[in-house]
């Protein structure tokens, strides 16, 4: 009988070391430098850095109405996209689990296509659909419903459509996992007692789906909060988000300390969202 050789701590350390070194070199070290850089400042009129400790960059972010406006737009847009994704994903996930049958795997594969393709290709496809001469405006004009093209690019509407299309899979997949674990008998029992479909959803299904709703909402909110390609292309420079502000400061203004401070603020909001999600998940776990 073959015996499995013992794995010593030294062997484990040697196996983990390459990944640990890689993570430290490509993530931890740049992140630490980003934090330090955010407390430096740019010497006026040059590209030199003043390495003296200062809070000037953070004071500028939270005292300038332009950057506060970008932060507020990013936050409420992320919340709005999360809400729309939730409303679309709830019936879709339930339908896939209960009624898709053999097509379930195919539908799940199609639903995650936006994640596999990356942000650029689907966004460029949306430009063709939403442009003044695109498919949507052309179809509405041909049916006589509109006379002039609807403005679907360069505004919040276009950016929201793009973000929902990009991040809907992040909401659908956790919900599918949650719905699969809900016994279908619960719904039948509630309906046999006279509950309407609305009451079944509100009193039975939604409470049982809460873990998936929390996980999906957290994923979509964080992804929308840091999205850059989709708001940049569909917003056409007219929708100011926090990610686009950081890009402008880093790539155009070349004010790296201020761009680092913008990035740190965005990371703090990500951490705050993660903390809220963890607290809600812990409370749900205790209640179950």
Topology:
Layout: H1 9-38, E1 41-42, E2 49-50, H2 56-63, H3 65-99, H4 104-111, H5 113-117, H6 120-130, H7 135-142, H8 156-180, H9 184-192, H10 197-226, H11 229-235, H12 242-252, H13 256-287
Antiparallel strand pairs: 1-2
Helix pairs in contact: 1-13, 3-8, 3-10, 6-8, 6-11, 8-10, 8-11, 9-10, 10-13, 12-13
List keywords for this structure.
288 residues; two-stranded antiparallel sheet; globular; 2 strands; mainly alpha
Describe the structure.
It is built from 13 helices and two strands. It has helices spanning 9-38, 56-63, 65-99, 104-111, 113-117, 120-130, 135-142, 156-180, 184-192, 197-226, 229-235, 242-252, 256-287; strands at residues 41-42, 49-50. Helix 1 crosses helix 13 (256-287) and helix 3 crosses helix 8 (156-180). It is globular. The two termini are 45 Å apart.
Summarize the structure.
This protein is mainly alpha-helical and 288 residues long. The protein has 13 helices and two strands; from the N terminus they run αββαααααααααααα.
Radius of gyration: 24 Å
Overall SS class: mainly alpha
The whole-number mean of residue pLDDT values reads 89
* Poorly predicted regions: none
| Helical amount | over 70%
Number of strands: 2
Q: Spell the H/E element sequence.
A: HEEHHHHHHHHHHHH
Strand content: under 5%
Largest sheet: 2 strands, antiparallel
**Intertermini distance:** 45 Å
Silhouette = globular
Order of strands side by side in the largest beta sheet? Answer: 1-2
Helical run tally: 13
